[in-house]
Structures are given as C-alpha cells and as structure tokens.
C-alpha cells in the first residue's frame, strides 16, 4: 500500500521491522496523520512520519500502520 500525506492511520500492531524499538509498543492503538510518507522514494521499507494525536511526531515502519476513517 502507498501511504499519502494527510491520511489518518492507526498503529495497529507491533512491527516485524528491525527498526521497531521497544518504547514504540506504547503507541499501539494510537491514531494520527501521515506528515511525511517519503513519496520521493516510494520504498515500502522506509519509515513513515506520523503525527499522533496528542503524542507528538514519530517515524514508524509501514507494516504496523493501517488507514482509518475520520
């Protein structure tokens, strides 16, 4: 899936990517907006920058994200 800036997403599971850090577990279930999808590279292995509701901006692997409505 290709993510786009402005999409609402949820961190719905722990990633299998090696860039996943243990502290990221606290963000599972959080929702936010994609602020930098790295569209210039469009590499599915790149991290995506997400601004989480009331939790700041972080970079996450793509396999832990899913698009949500509203």
From TrEMBL:
It comes from the Bacteria. This is Hypervirulence associated protein TUDOR domain-containing protein. It comes from Desulfacinum infernum.
């Amino acid at each position: 899936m290709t993510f786009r800036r402005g999409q609402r997403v949820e961190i719905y599971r722990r990633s299998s990517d090696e860039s996943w850090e243990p502290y990221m577990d606290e963000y599972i279930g959080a929702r936010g907006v994609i602020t930098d999808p790295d569209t210039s590279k469009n590499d599915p292995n790149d991290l995506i920058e997400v601004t989480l509701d009331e939790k700041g901006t972080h970079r996450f692997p793509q396999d832990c994200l899913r698009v949500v409505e509203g």
